[in-house]
Design goal:
Pfam families: Histone, Histone_H2A_C
CATH architecture of one domain: Orthogonal Bundle
CATH superfamily of one domain: Histone, subunit A
Subunit structure: The nucleosome is a histone octamer containing two molecules each of H2A, H2B, H3 and H4 assembled in one H3-H4 heterotetramer and two H2A-H2B heterodimers. The octamer wraps approximately 147 bp of DNA.
Shape: elongated
Subcellular location: Chromosome; Nucleus
CATH class of one domain: Mainly Alpha
Keywords: Chromosome, DNA-binding, Nucleosome core, Nucleus
Largest sheet: none
Distance between the termini: 103 Å
Number of helices: 9
Family: Belongs to the histone H2A family.
Mean pLDDT: 78
């Protein structure tokens, strides 16, 4: 019997599971296959109290818990702690609430994701795999809301938006008869 490391979900009776229930059951079933233990043993381990699981070696000493960042708690990629520091050091207000940097991080992450998605589409339209400033410029200026938000922003190396004035475009010919007459007249002389 080889020692296998396994992770278990601890779900308290009044707490919602972090995963849907069918995924929790699937994880327990997979763990039973990989650890060669029966399902009742795994269910008993999953139902253990948090003190039983977190003690180290049964000596009553708590195992060191890993610190969880505020970004991870909020489910964000942008740094909540750094934005909180910027808000405090910038002296925008005397005090900064605990939810303010989380909210601001979420807004910034959403805007970045929106711009990157549109820029990725622009890159794909140009048959490129890499986003360059030109793609960001095209993405921002073609989106009405982003163009309004970033109206006074100059994107370095972004280029200009392609636009040809209507008066400069060639006029469409009405019918083929007019074309033939014009062409035949020039051939006569």
């Amino acid at each position: 019997s080889a020692n296998h490391s396994a992770s278990f979900f601890i779900i308290k009776p009044n707490q919602q599971p972090s995963l849907p229930l069918h995924l929790v059951e699937t994880k327990i079933a997979i763990l039973s296959i990989t650890t060669n233990e029966s399902l009742p043993n795994l269910n008993r381990k999953a139902e253990m109290s948090s003190t039983e699981v977190s003690t180290k070696g049964g000596r009553g000493r708590k195992a060191s818990t890993k610190s969880v960042s505020r970004s991870h708690k909020a489910g964000l990629q942008f740094p909540v702690g750094r934005i909180a520091r910027y808000l405090k050091k910038g002296r925008y207000a005397q005090r900064v609430g605990s939810g303010s940097p989380v909210y601001l991080s979420a807004v910034l992450e959403y805007l970045a994701a929106e711009v990157l998605e549109l820029a990725g589409n622009a890159a794909r339209d140009n048959k490129k795999n890499r986003i360059i400033p030109r793609h960001i410029q095209l993405a921002v200026r073609n989106d009405e809301e982003l163009s309004k938000l970033l109206g006074s922003v100059t994107i370095a190396s972004g280029g200009v938006m392609p636009k040809i004035h209507q008066s400069l475009l060639p006029k469409k010919a009405g019918n083929a008869k007019d074309k033939a007459e014009i062409g035949s007249a020039s051939q006569e002389f």
